[in-house]
Design a protein that fits this description.
By secondary structure, the protein is an alpha/beta fold. The protein has a single domain, classed as Ribonuclease H-like superfamily/Ribonuclease H (Nucleotidyltransferase, domain 5, 2-Layer Sandwich), CATH 3.30.420.10. It has a six-stranded mixed β-sheet with strand order 5-4-1-2-3-6, sandwiched between helices. It is globular. The two termini are about 35 Å apart.
Length: about 240
Amino acid sequence: MLEHVDIKNILFLDIETVPQHPQFMEVQEEMRKLWEKKSKQIIRDESTAESVYRQAGIYAEFGKIVCVSCGYLNSENKFRIKSFAGDDEKKLLTEFAGMLNKFFSASDKLLCAHNGKEFDFPFLARRMVINGIRLPAVLNNAGKKPWEVNHIDTMELWKFGDYKSYTSLLLLATILGIPTPKDDIDGSMVWEVYWKEKNLQRIVTYCQKDVLTVAQIFLRFRCEPLLSESQVEIVEA
């Protein structure tokens, strides 16, 4: 299948999410109670609902998106990366949805992310619904047959039908010989960088590097040359 896909028809993406509030006690009372129930899935040993609240960002009901970065290879073989980021989630998602509608005006376009089918794609769709944003067709899977969903997931490609394990983007890139930046923040640090450091640009840079890595992994699956630094262009918002 992959050898028949034109990479120029693929939009690669990655998202970064955080809890909706900096501290558990700032959460509205009803939502605090609901988090106490939800957090039972991740509480270990002496942990409490409050102590694990920083992990709330992985749930669309309790988290929010602070950055969406996407990239595509244009007709001049430049890999262009653009980010939608900010504190106003509705604004950034509205702008991103507008871009999706333009990019996916043709039916042969595809969306690609690492673990996208389990995380990025449904998280984007859920937060758009919560924010009252009309879903772009590429994110609206309701009533579609599996082969009608224009999504590629590099983690799913690596599983080769094995659904028992999770392979991180960093691990997959490393074993495939794809250079990965050593100055990246860890995904678990996004909460602190956003709410404590208030350094959104650091998160944007991290997200953009992940988008490039996803594209490089896709190329490795097809045994094609990796993108060079000179091919990468960051499009300013």
